[in-house]
Amino acid sequence: MTGIAITFLIFAIVIVWGGLVVSAVFLRRRPERTDYPPGGEDDHREDAAPIEHDT
Asked: In which residue ranges is the amino acid composition biased (Basic and acidic residues) (predicted)?
């Protein structure tokens, strides 16, 4: 392998594994979202669901 190929291989490994580590650390620090935008209340109305058609 040439030097440039090894450099790009190391760069790709750092990007992929680094992203995995950063996302795992982020999820470890903030496992659930604590605030949601307004208007997202679910009132469990089943009669207002969209019509389903068999095609």
From this structure: 41-55
In Å, how far are 9, 11, 25, 39 from 3, measured between CA atoms? 10, 12, 32, 55
Size of the chain in residues: 55
Q: Which of 13, 11, 15, 12 is nearest to 23 (CA)?
A: 15
Instruction: Look up residue 22 and give its two tokens.
Output: 């950063």
- Would residue 52 count as lying in a domain? no
Both tokens assigned to 5: 């190929």
Q: Could you report the per-residue pLDDT of 9-21, keeping only the tens digit for each?
A: 999 999 999 999 9
- What residues make up the domain containing 1? 1-30
pTM of the predicted protein model: 0.49
Number of domains in the chain: 1
